[in-house]
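Homework help board

Subject: predicted structure for assignment chain

Our instructor gave us this sequence and asked us to write out the predicted structure in C-alpha cell form, then describe one feature. I got the C-alpha cells but I'm not sure how to describe them. Can anyone check?
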Amino acid sequence: MPIEVFAASRWTPGNHLFPTIVEVTDPIASHGPRKADARRIKDLIEAAQRDHLPAAPVDGPTRHCPSCAETIKQAATVCRYCGRELP
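My C-alpha cell output:
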C-alpha cells in the first residue's frame, strides 16, 4: 500500500513552528487533521484491516447480544463484549 501524508489544517497546541503531519504507515498516529483528511485516514485504516487481517473464525451458531448487539456464540451465557448475563 502506498504511503499517504496529510498536513494539519491548523497549528496544534505546543507546536508553533510546524503543522502536524500524519503519515499513514504502521503504526498510525494522528493529531489535528482536516475533516476530509481524517475521513480518508479512516478509509485507509479500514481497507488495510479488510485486506490484511483474517476473518474471525466462526465456531458454531451465533446470535446477537440484546444489550450491545455484538455477535456472540449461541451457547454463551455472558456477553464477552459488554459483560452482561444473557437470557
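Reply (TA_rk): Your C-alpha cells look well-formed. For the description, you could write something like this. The chain has a mean pLDDT of 78. That's the kind of observation they're looking for.
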